[in-house]
Amino acid sequence: MLHGRPASAGTASGPARIVRGPEDFDRVRRGDVLVCHFTDPAWTPLFGVVAAVVTEVGGPLSHAAIVAREQRIPAVVGVADAMSLLDDSKPVTVDGTAGTVS
C-alpha cells in the first residue's frame, strides 16, 4: 500500500495508467487511474475520462487536487515514486479520503 495526501474524497478502482507527459495522453482510456508526476492545465481533459488520479508531488492546492475535486473523482497526491512502484495496466484502488493507493 502506498500513502500520500488525500486530495479528493472517494474510492475508485481501475487499471493504473502511467503517463509521463502529453505524448502519453492517447494511451489513457475511460476508467483508468491516472498515475503521473504532476498535472498542469494541459492535462485537464484527462480528468473527464479517468476514474481517479495519483501524483508523485503536490498538495491540496495543486492542479490535480483542485480539478479532481471539481470533477468529483478520487485523488491522492504526493505519493513518492508512484510511477515506478505501480505497474502500468495493473488494477489499483485509490482512496482519496484516506490518502492510500493499493
UniProtKB/TrEMBL annotation:
Residues 29-99 form the PEP-utilising enzyme mobile domain. Gene3D superfamilies: Phosphohistidine domain. InterPro entries: PEP-util_enz_mobile_dom, PEP_Utilizing_Enz, Phosphohistidine_dom_sf. It holds the Pfam family PEP-utilizers. SUPFAM superfamilies: Phosphohistidine domain. PANTHER family: PHOSPHOENOLPYRUVATE SYNTHASE-RELATED, PPDK_N DOMAIN-CONTAINING PROTEIN. This is PEP-utilising enzyme mobile domain-containing protein. It comes from Kribbella lupini.
